[in-house]
Amino acid sequence: MFNIVTWNINGIRSSQQNLKDLFDSLGADIICLQETKITRDMLDETTALVDGYSSFYSFSRKRSGYSGVATYCKNSCYPFQAEEGLAGTFNAHDDKIDFYDNVHSSFTDEGLRALDAEGRCVITLHKFKEEETLLSLVVVNVYCPNAGENDERLPYKLEFYRALNLRCNDLLSQGYSVIVLGDMNVSHRLIDHCEPEDVTNFSKSPSRVWLDGFLYEGGGKFVDSFRYLYPTKEKAFTCWNTKLNARVNNYGTRIDYIIISNELTHALQDCIIMSDVHGSDHCPVKSSIALELIPSTKLPALCTKYFKEFSGKQLKMSTFVCKRTLTSVEQSNEIEKESEGSEPKKMRLSMKTTKQQQSSLLNYFSMGTTNSVKESVSNSNLSCDTSKLKESSKNSENSKSVLGTTNSFSSASAVWKSVFKGPPPPPLCNGHQEVCVLRTVKKKGPNMNRQFWACSRATGHSSDANAQCNFFVWASAKR
């Protein structure tokens, strides 16, 4: 038995928990993460080298802090081979799985590079025993592109799906068992969505049509492990809109999958959605599979353990700026230089003495302040008697001037308050008569970055009276 987990972590550096403790709490032998949001220069040692695990990364080569996937394997599940990308475009080493015939023949070189350039796939090859026969298992960790039905990224998303299908078929043709898991960015059936807008055309979207054809029920060679075990389970969601606090009412979608090739269904024991695990807008999904994995005796070249910056082969910037202790040879050289002539030493001593004797600018000001204080004290003693005579005559005049000044300030303040009334108070929503919250439109279009008022409650199903009501008003509208 081994456990495998997929989790869109939404930024691996945003995790507040120690990675080893986090991984151990998941109870998995292989952990596949998506949306790590780091490039290689951002990867630090504590993230790359987690005690008890080996890690394999694919980074985005187009944007920093974007996309990215990583596969962590326990030491008991060392893979035999590993590579990044669906097409192997950036695999410089020879230790790769290979078999890209259909993929390479179906795309141009430019198209292949575009598929792999966003860091959306890591593939690892493992071995398992079945009736004393050693067989191969390939784990394909993917973060599929996100795109709406009319989005300009939709063609790229569909090309990625097509390449994924071709590569998996190439691997199956070699006799390998295959597990495809990750954020597929598509909810398959109506049961996998909290409340779709267009129910009539839901199944006709290009992404769902592709997933239908990829799965066994639509003529493909793979099985959705969760729906295979729980075909009618409702509200089994893996992703929620955290900005709308949608997780409170479980108002989400199921877009994270563990999909296995058909011949592995006999070994599938369970598949659970770990909705109690927080830290991202997604939750982990874990499958238990009755296979005995055999660890490799040597890690593949893609492993972060072999990165120059973590293997001691590449000097870090800290080695150039840290304090260094002189060796005995260097110390003797310094002594010889001193003994060659006494003049430089004398000059240094005289300079040091001069430096000590010279007053700082701060001392100059402090001395000046002290002298001025002394002067003012002596002058005040001389004029003390005359000031007392004048004091009583000025008291009445001062009180009048202060009173006049106060009145002028109060009248000016009233004028300014009449001009600047400040922002109006937030409106109350119609459904609950509660104070609304201010939100900003993020979707591209004529209203992008425009602000509006909405109900402050967590979003939920339209039939849920305790969920957010449909109150909406533009912040710029007069009230």
TrEMBL record:
Give an example GO biological process: base-excision repair
EC number(s) per UniProt?
Answer: 3.1.-.-
Cofactor(s) annotated in UniProt: Mg(2+); Mn(2+)
**Segments of this protein annotated with the region Disordered:** 332-353, 375-404
Q: Which UniProt keywords apply?
A: DNA damage, DNA repair, Hydrolase, Magnesium, Manganese, Metal-binding, Nucleus, Zinc, Zinc-finger
Per the record, where is site Interaction with DNA substrate? 282
Residues of the GRF-type domain: 429-478
The UniProt regions of compositional bias labelled Polar residues, in chain numbering, are 375-386
Kindly indicate whether the keyword Zinc-finger belongs to this entry. yes
What is the catalytic activity of this protein? Exonucleolytic cleavage in the 3'- to 5'-direction to yield nucleoside 5'-phosphates
Alphabetical list of InterPro entries matching this protein: AP_endonuc_1, AP_endonuclease_F1_BS, Endo/exonu/phosph_ase_sf, Endo/exonuclease/phosphatase, Znf_GRF
Q: What is this protein called?
A: DNA-(apurinic or apyrimidinic site) endonuclease
- Source organism per entry reads Daphnia galeata
